[in-house]
Amino acid sequence: MKTISLTTLFFFFAISIFAQKYDIQIKTEINLGQKIEQFRAVPMAIGKDVPNVVVAMYSEDAEIDPNLGMFFFPAHTLKLAAFDVEGEILWKKDLGKGVIPGVWFSPVAAFDLDKDGMDEVWNVNTTDPGHPLDHRAFVLEKRDAKTGEVKGQWEWPKPYGSQEMSRLFRHFIMGGYVNGEPVLITANGTKNYETIKCWNSDMSERWVYKKTPDTPGCQGSHMSPIVDINNDGVDELLWGERCIELDKGRMLFCADEDSWNGHSDIIEPILDKKTGKWYFFTCRESSNQNPPRVVLFDEKGQRIWSKQKEGHIDTGWAARIGKNGEPVVLGVKIGKKKRSAEGEFRVDVEENTFNAFTGEKIDLGFSVYTTIPIDLNGDGIHELVKGYFEGDGTIMDNTGKVIGNIGGASAIASKFTGDAGEQLLSYSKDGIVRIWIDKNAHDNQIAKDRYAHPFYKLNQKQTGNGYNLFNLGGL
Predict the structure, then answer these.
(1) What's the pTM?
(2) Residue 181 bridge partners (DSSP)
(3) Peptide bond preceding 292: is omega within 30 degrees of 0, i.e. cis?
(4) Tens digit of pLDDT for each residue in 300-351?
(5) 3-class SS string, 453-470
(6) Residue 257 in contact with residue 217, Cβ under 8 Å?
(7) Whole-angstrom distance, CA of residue 305 vs CA of residue 147
(8) Residues above pLDDT 70, as percent of the chain
(9) How far apart (Å, rounded) are the C-alpha atoms in residues 329 and 313?
(10) Which of 335, 342, 347, 409 is closest to 72 using CA atoms?
(11) Which of 376, 396, 393 is nearest to 384 (CA)?
């Protein structure tokens, strides 16, 4: 009679645990008490007593973009609210008619700049609400995360003079570290005229970086990852293909500086876990038609591979959806896009996926357009949720198998509760916000290492800033 060793039994027991079925359920529902057409949210910490909190910015108006053909006058105001992950609303604030509802007019960030152990809430406001497009009255606003009360206002860095709206109203707020010391970054403009300012913890100016049309190299991007790309203890801002260190504001490099002066929609860092080296992936918009359109660079801005000779590569990501969690990158080519009071739409969509490190084209066998990477079950391999743009909320595993649905758009896809795995935060037009978890999740060591990484902790708080919903996919 054949016997089975204890080691073999343990092996099959372990396999059964990690091959468990998903059990995706709603953890929490929050009713914000109004219709929602735009919504963004950021995890934050307000002390040991309430460690898991979300700050949200929302409006009854659809997302208002400053671009021609996309801007419309708001009929409603922009709101701020904070709630814990168990569903208790801590506070609500109305920013009034002076702030145009839209991420490019007023992003929201959570970051502990004053080193008191609690995040502060940061947003853009105005001192002249009667003239909401007068950038001379714009201020950087700091709020108490526990109460929402304003704790200070500072003049928003002045942009360059007369510009078209799409270039003038592009605001960013994010945090980073210089040898462990926190600094705050504010920026405006993503094309031609761009101003980046670094603030110390006492709100004094640390440095200012300015770019004009005469500056060689790339424009800014819709994404703004902060990463210690050379592992020297000083974070860098990837401003398009331009890498700026946060200590002195020096440009370390500008990738493709002599051949690319356009605007890339996607800038995403990717970590090679075997070597500890960083790379970054770019998807390029159509304002400059120079090839290539998708590129992978190393930590010094040198090309590793490039693909596609033409087209507007409007969106994309990196995700660890290989059989063993290997990173794959996506570039989505589009024909046209339109944004109005009814929402945002794209036509003539073409998806292209590649092995992240080699550039080898991959046929996934299923559509990943509108998806956001998310490790719901904590196994170190991403699932994908159709929670972006026109996405319907479908959740798939890395083979394309449908495993659930969150019913619509997602505003957070990271670990922001005390539950195992990563969590999703979704919202619906009736004003209901939901937090989703996999009740069968179990965090393996790969997942735990990912959650603990400084890049993860920092960049998961950029979801109220630019288009940074999927900036963790390359980690």
Answers:
(1) 0.93
(2) 178
(3) yes
(4) 999 999 999 999 999 999 999 999 999 999 999 998 877 666 667 788 899 9
(5) CHHHHHHHHHCCCCCCCC
(6) yes
(7) 49
(8) 95
(9) 13
(10) 342
(11) 396
Tell me the pLDDT band of 18, cut-offs 50, 70 and 90: very low
Q: Are 127 and 137 in contact (CB under 8 A)?
A: yes
Q: State the DSSP H helix or E strand holding residue 183, giving kind and residue range, or none if neither.
A: strand 181-188
The secondary structure of residue 390, as a DSSP letter, is T
Extended beta strands in 220-289, E state: 226-227, 236-239, 242-245, 251-254, 264-272, 277-284
d(CA 207, CA 414): 31
The tokens describing 172, both together, are 């960013």
Which pair of structure tokens corresponds to residue 120?
């502060």
Name residue, tokens 């002195």.
Answer: 248
Q: 198, exposed or middle or buried, with CB in 10 Å at 0-12, 13-18, 19+? A: buried
Report the distance separating Cα 147 and Cα 169, nearest Å: 28
pLDDT tens-digit series, residues 250-262: 999 999 999 999 9
Q: How far apart are CA 382 and CA 247, in angstroms?
A: 34
pLDDT reported for residue 288: 77
Tell me whether strands 264-272 and 383-386 are parallel, antiparallel or unpaired: unpaired
Q: Are 197 and 211 in contact (CB under 8 A)?
A: no
Q: Is the dihedral of CA 414, 331, 428, 385 positive or negative?
A: negative
**What is the b/e burial string over 8-30, where b = at least 16 CB atoms within 10 angstroms of the residue's CB?**
eeeeeeeeeeeeeebebeebbeb
List Cα–Cα distances, 36 to 149, 187, 377, 412, in angstroms: 23, 27, 29, 16
- Tokens coding 421: 């795995």
Q: What is the DSSP letter of 293?
A: S
Phi/psi for 276 (5° steps) reads 80, 5
- pLDDT tens across 162-204, in order? 788 888 899 999 999 999 999 999 999 988 899 999 999 999 9
Cα distance between residue 330 and residue 283, in whole Å? 9
Q: Quote the DSSP letter at residue 451.
A: H
3-state secondary structure of 45: coil
Q: Which residues contact 444 (CB under 8 A, 6 or more apart)?
A: 18, 378, 379, 380
Cβ-count burial 93-122 (b if 16+ within 10 Å, e if not) = bebeebbbbbbbbbbbbbbbbeeeebbbbb
pLDDT of residue 435: 98
